[in-house]
Design brief:
The complex is a heterodimer. By secondary structure, chain A is α/β, with parallel strands linked by helices. Helix content of chain A is about 20%, strand content about 30%. Classes of the chains: A alpha/beta, B mainly alpha.
Chain lengths: ~160, ~400
């Protein structure tokens, strides 16, 4: 089953929830509404065989709305096919449902995402920081967090 | 029946068997582990954040420092991702591909030697440790001859290699590979028939294939549970489809099965390296893309074009199209992936590393809860974690 077939089935099942489909260098990306993320992921796992969550992360598009983009890298071990699911998350409501009920591996990955990017995962079983100390203030991977440390001017880059 | 209180003890981050700075909080009922909670992050250096402020060529040395026992695999994953982003994947010369595979497999041997050495040492078999490090030293010497560094090699480049193989190294590698199966037999002779070794690792750290896949476990830890999945065979990169090798799979689900899987992988690596040496033909080692690939030093000092390209690449950095790519490679520990988002600028807009050890470590509580506290040491050993990669 190619990624295109999976995308077609996803569109047939969820219709309006699928916002955009794009392809770059042979990799397929599907953008979905964040409210339906658990339903979409459950469908992908149970019906389309994407049984392996390779990775999960967030991207910070500072200055754009919506500011954050959640990225889920899925893999189908049966047919060795990758698929990328994305869901936009707004800055003033930086929360999304956890997918750790779909893939157990999402537990730590979402903790990392919360720790470094500040996305809150609804119903997460263990919502603690993971890499930074528990009393750390701020989320270091956000674009407005200075690379040299929290009390420094934002790094302008050697090239600018 | 009387009820007993559990006792909570702290293991690490300075415990010798935690392979770095892993801290485990263990809740014990007598000697039985009721709950294990890993605490990580002591080695967090912010590699993903740093990479957003460097050009694509400057990020490469950071990747060495992730899994420092297998630096060339991290380099390989990163350069493959960047090459895919620049559309260079099909432009890599044959010689560079073969050397990459050869070095990747030598690195797998090197990493597995450290795994076996430390795993056996943790359980009390000192001799194996000394033997494994003796062989590892040869691989370190190859590293040094190729790149000048023994650990953080930084040898691959976007588009190929930083330098060609030095004279005579092919014969040295071939000699080493011819001897290696004998050494692997020695390790097996010291361990496999050893009653203490068997008692310690048989039935230890059980995890089913379903649980392993649910928890995202990859690499030999998954294959020891019967998960027949290896990216070298299933999503070949760098020409792995041209090599004849078997994927080591075992159905035991315990530490014993993973031990046999990794030993078989070491033998298969030797086979791949021998095939790579046979395939090695003279030829270019860098793709013909002067605006992207760093030119060799002799071009920089001898030709005006080389100098200009060098200046442009160093001072500004090559700019890819806006887009996003994910490339995963089969590291000795499991799947290591690089997800790079580009906005068209000379630096990655976002780089996410999929660390194999981080995700494998998540399975540790499942593998050691309900077993003896002494078995935790064996489970840490069999997971083959590297804290540099976990904390990034």
């Amino acid at each position: 089953m190619s990624a295109q077939v999976a995308v077609d089935k996803l569109k047939a099942k969820f219709g309006e929830t699928v916002l955009a489909v794009s392809e770059f260098r042979g990799e397929t990306t599907v953008v979905v509404k964040k409210d339906e993320i658990v339903a979409v992921c459950t469908f992908l796992k149970k019906e389309l065989g994407y049984n392996f969550l390779t990775d999960l992360c967030a991207i910070d598009y500072l200055g754009q709305a919506p500011r954050f983009m959640m990225v889920y890298q899925l893999y189908n071990i049966g047919v060795h096919q990758r698929l990328r699911i994305k869901a936009a998350v707004e800055e003033d409501d930086a929360r999304i449902d956890t997918v750790s009920c779909v893939w157990a591996t999402a537990n730590w990955l979402e903790r990392e995402c919360y720790d470094l990017m500040g996305i809150v995962f609804n119903n997460h079983p263990d919502p603690r920081r993971i890499l930074m100390p528990d009393d750390w203030i701020g989320h270091p991977l956000r674009k407005d967090y200075p690379v040299q440390g929290p009390d420094r001017e934002p790094y302008q880059g050697r090239l600018q | 029946m009387a009820t007993f209180e559990t006792m909570t003890i702290n293991m690490g981050p300075q415990h010798p068997s935690t392979h770095g700075v892993l801290r485990l909080v263990l809740e014990l009922d007598g000697e039985i582990v009721v709950k294990a909670t890993p605490h990580i992050g002591f080695l967090h250096r912010g590699v993903e954040k740093l990479s957003e402020h460097r050009t694509y060529h400057q990020v490469l040395p950071l990747t060495d420092r992730l899994d420092y026992l297998a630096p060339m695999h991290n380099n390989l994953g990163y350069v493959l991702a960047v090459e895919k982003l620049f559309g260079l994947t099909d432009a890599i010369p044959e010689r560079a591909q073969v050397v990459r595979v050869m070095m990747a497999e030598l690195t797998r041997l090197k990493s597995h030697l450290v795994w076996l050495a430390c795993h056996a040492l943790d359980i009390g078999a000192m001799t194996v440790f000394i033997y494994c490090f003796r062989e590892r030293e040869h691989i370190m010497n190859f590293y040094e001859k190729l790149s000048g560094a023994r650990m953080t090699s930084n040898y691959f480049r976007v588009g190929g290699l930083s330098a060609d193989l030095p004279d005579g190294i092919e014969q040295e590698i071939r000699k080493f590979i011819d001897e290696m199966p004998y050494h692997i037999e020695t390790y097996e002779g010291l361990l496999t028939g050893n009653k203490i070794w068997q008692k310690r690792i048989q039935g230890n750290g059980m995890i089913s294939a379903e649980d392993a896949i649910d928890l995202g476990v990859t690499g030999p830890t998954l294959r020891g549970s019967g998960g027949d999945w290896d990216l070298r065979r299933d999503q070949p990169y760098s020409g792995y489809e041209n090599y004849d090798f078997e994927v080591a799979v075992s159905n035991g689900c315990d530490t014993w099965a993973r031990y046999h899987c990794r030993l078989k992988e070491m033998r298969e690596s030797c086979k791949i390296i021998r095939q790579a040496l046979d395939k090695l033909k003279p030829g270019p080692i860098l793709a013909d893309a002067p605006k992207i690939c760093l030119p060799p030093k002799k071009d920089v000092v001898n030709s005006i074009e080389g100098l200009i390209h060098h200046f442009k690449i160093i001072s500004e950095g090559p700019k890819p199209e806006a887009g996003e790519v994910y490339v995963g490679v089969e590291n000795p520990k499991g799947e290591v992936g690089f997800y790079i988002v580009s906005d068209g600028s000379p630096r990655p807009y976002r780089m996410k590393i999929r660390p194999a050890s981080f995700i494998n470590l998540q399975a540790l509580p499942k593998m050691c809860e309900g077993s003896l506290i002494a078995d935790v040491v064996a489970v840490i050993g069999t997971l083959d974690i590297v804290l540099g990669e976990i904390d990034r």
